[in-house]
Amino acid sequence: MSLLRRFSGPQAQPTDLPVSPKLNRRDSLRWLLGGLGLSMGGLAGCETATTETAWLRVVNATTNYTTADFWVEGSLAVSSLSQGGTASAWLEVEAGDVQVSLRAAGGSSDKFSSSHSYDSDSSTTLVALGSLGSSTDALTFKYLPETTSAPASGLVKVRALHACGGQGPLNVYLTDTEASASDLADLDPLADTTVLEAMGSLGGFSSVDAGTLWRVWVTSEDGTLLFASHVDGFSLGGGSVVTLVVAPPGPTVGVLVQQSSSLVLANYA
To answer: Per the database record, which ranges form the DUF4397 domain (predicted)?
Structure first.
């Protein structure tokens, strides 16, 4: 019998994405027992039978489905998740091989399904991306293990994922609120390489200051502006690890904080 639990944490605010680590499995059990007036000691004889679990959240970055359902081991886990960079609530699943399937919202047939192995107490973001029937940007899952070491408290590690099927190479920039679109030609993109070459490309991490208000910009390889976040900017909590997911439609950009919350930035380009 599969184990699947949903957890809805506090909603992230656009002006501040704090680091909010999840409780590990043992601490979660201790918290639950405390609320019942029990202790771990009282269950010492049963602890060896506790199921090993892992944490999973999903993102609908497909080009076909404005809303999608995600099924885990044959059970509906996430219903009508909107297209873009929005992440689901965290799900607790059994460690080991876990089958995840994507369906159109309310649909009865799998559009894509894949099994992946999850270590005990690990955290992973699954990004569904691509297009059903496409020969170049086919529907698939991209797995992002959330294992990167945290930076110092005054810094943030940031990288970008190209999850926008149908788009060619992309440049992703992170600037302060003083920058304008005309400045981008003189700046280096937020990636180890010059551009994120294709859908599924994941850039390396850059370290930025935590106390700055930031804007995200996305351009095509030839410099055409495709995305600009709000001029007022947004902040990132110190010591956090962040992945910017460039996703359809538009594109939009999701801000995923490792082992924590997420938000989607509106496009003002």
So the answer is: 54-173
Asked whether 108 and 85 are in contact (CB, 8 A), the reply is no
Domain map of the chain by residue range?
Answer: 4-9+19-145, 155-265
- Say how far apart CA 39 and CA 41 lie, in whole Å: 5
Judge whether 42 and 36 are in contact, CB under 8 Å.
Answer: no
pLDDT mean values, one per 10 residues, the chain (269 residues)? 42 40 41 39 51 96 96 97 94 97 96 97 97 88 97 95 93 92 86 75 92 93 94 94 94 96 94
Q: What angle do CA 179, 181, 186 make, to 5 degrees?
A: 75
Q: 3-class DSSP state for residue 45? A: helix
- CATH number, span 155-265: 2.60.40
Question: Residue 4: CA atoms inside 13 Å, Cβ hemisphere, count?
Answer: 16
CB distance 195 to 218 below 8 Å:
no
CATH assignment of 4-9+19-145, given 3.40.50, 1.10.10, 3.90.550, 2.60.40?
2.60.40
Spatial CA neighbour of 98 closest among 119, 67, 128, 80: 119
